[in-house]
């Protein structure tokens, strides 16, 4: 921002991760062509909206959306999402001084719910802390204590469950009309899940006693697998969870000790590092053994380069930003799932992330 004057032309290339300041006419022309090409491609992909994501050999993959705010629902519907795999509720709490009331939360959740209809709606409890600050919630906890390794996500919710209780009440009310699942962020041990479930049951009882309508069966409760320790103890967490959602953003950050918000180490952030992939494989196998559903909702899930690897590892539900759904769906429809799982097995024998990237590229070039 320091190098740019107001009024200067700037091109933001989200594909390359670059910003071009004061581009020459030739560069502008090149990008205009690129942009027209993108729009043409998007129109082509639009035709896939009502087609299922089925591989050439008949494997159905669930295509869900990551959602932060109600205004995204138009796009979510346009993209043909089959549900919400991650609703980041912390966005309701950010950029404001006070905490939204139960009714305010209920209104926002209802609006999002109306957009997804009968499909599954996975609502994550607050994931504040780390790179997602919300001053109103931290109260007397200073920012350093709420760092990535501090009181973040479920730890903050359990430290003072009053906000969690309000959030559960709003979620339970929405569950009357929607197919809701509850997802817990930054979990590391089964006791966190048990404690959170106790709060949920207490709140449900309280509401029933007060004559407030809630569903007979409480929503399923699942956990994000986004800390290496949670991945390595996935079999224990599977005993107390109804489903898993792999958070590859934080899983990569914590496994490789690379701050996801620090540009100086951005080149080291690599979800194809064998350590990250092994943790994802370990988690997936624990979920399959425990017969609980598993999905992935980190940025990786929305990158068509990685689709074959994820599906090949046995993750058959993907949740991503709505804009990525058509391209990932196309990748699945062009792909042979059996060949993808054979390639995934070969990849899991590798120790070098460069070689892994090459093997994925080779596979993707075949179909
Ligand atoms: C993740 O960590 O991969 C994830 C999906 O959660 P968030 O990006 O909201 O931390
Ligand atoms: Mg996360």
Notable features of this structure?
single chain; 367 residues; 8-stranded parallel sheet; globular; binds magnesium ion; TIM Barrel; two-stranded antiparallel sheet; binds phosphoenolpyruvate; alpha/beta
Question: Could you outline the blueprint of secondary structure elements for this entry?
Answer:
Blueprint: E1 10-13, E2 18-21, H1 25-46, E3 62-67, H2 73-78, E4 83-88, H3 102-116, E5 120-124, H4 135-138, H5 154-159, H6 162-175, E6 179-184, H7 190-209, E7 220-225, H8 228-232, H9 234-238, E8 244-246, H10 248-256, H11 274-290, E9 294-296, H12 307-313, E10 317-321, H13 325-333, H14 337-347, H15 353-366
Helix pairs in contact: 3-6, 6-7, 10-11, 12-14
Bound molecules: phosphoenolpyruvate and magnesium ion (MG).
Phosphoenolpyruvate binds at residues 86, 88, 127, 226, 247-250, 297-298.
Describe the protein's architecture and organization:
The protein is globular and about 65 Å long. The protein has two domains: 1-47, no CATH class; 53-366, TIM Barrel (Alpha-Beta Barrel), CATH 3.20.20.60. α3 packs parallel to α6, α6 (162-175) packs across α7 and α10 packs across α11 (274-290). The protein has 367 residues and is α/β, with parallel strands linked by helices. The mean pLDDT is 95. It is built from 15 helices and ten strands. The strands form two sheets. Strands 9-8-7-6-5-4-3-10 form an eight-stranded parallel beta sheet. Helices cover 45% and strands 13% of the residues. β3, α2 and β4 form a beta-alpha-beta unit. Bound molecules: phosphoenolpyruvate and magnesium ion. Phosphoenolpyruvate is lined by residues 86, 88, 127, 226, 247-250, 297-298.
């Amino acid at each position: 921002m320091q190098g740019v004057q107001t009024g200067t032309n700037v091109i933001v290339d989200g594909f390359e991760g670059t910003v071009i300041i004061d581009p020459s006419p030739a560069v502008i022309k090149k990008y205009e062509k690129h942009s027209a090409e993108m729009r043409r491609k998007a129109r082509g992909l639009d035709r896939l909206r009502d087609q299922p994501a089925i591989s050439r050999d008949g494997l159905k993959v669930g295509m869900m959306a990551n959602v932060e705010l109600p205004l995204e629902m138009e796009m979510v519907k346009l993209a043909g999402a089959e549900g919400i795999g991650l609703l980041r509720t912390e966005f309701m709490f950010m950029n404001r001084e006070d905490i939204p009331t139960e009714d305010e939360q209920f209104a926002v959740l209802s609006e999002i719910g109306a957009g997804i209809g009968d499909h599954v709606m996975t609502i994550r409890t607050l994931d504040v802390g780390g790179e997602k600050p919300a001053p109103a919630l931290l109260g007397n906890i200073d920012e350093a204590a709420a760092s990535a390794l501090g009181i973040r996500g479920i730890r903050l919710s359990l430290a003072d469950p009053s906000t969690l209780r309000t959030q559960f009440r709003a979620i339970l009310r929405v569950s009357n009309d929607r197919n809701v699942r509850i997802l817990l962020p930054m979990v590391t041990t089964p006791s966190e899940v048990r404690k959170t479930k106790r709060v949920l049951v207490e709140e449900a009882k309280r509401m029933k006693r007060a004559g407030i309508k809630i569903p007979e069966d409480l929503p399923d409760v699942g956990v994000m697998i986004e800390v290496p320790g949670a991945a390595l103890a996935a079999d224990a967490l599977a005993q107390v969870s109804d489903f898993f959602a792999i958070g590859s953003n934080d899983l990569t950050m914590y496994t490789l000790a690379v701050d996801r918000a620090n540009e100086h180490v951005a080149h080291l952030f690599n979800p194809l590092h064998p350590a990250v992939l092994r943790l994802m494989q370990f988690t997936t196998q624990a979920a399959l053994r425990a017969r609980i559903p598993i999905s992935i909702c980190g940025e990786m899930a929305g990158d068509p380069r990685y689709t074959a690897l994820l599906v090949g590892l046995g993750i058959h539900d993907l949740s991503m930003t709505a804009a990525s759904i058509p391209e990932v769906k196309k990748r699945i429809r062009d792909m042979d799932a059996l060949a993808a799982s054979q390639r995934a097995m070969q990849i899991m024998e590798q120790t070098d992330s460069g070689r892994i990237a090459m093997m994925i590229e080779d596979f993707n070039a075949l179909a």
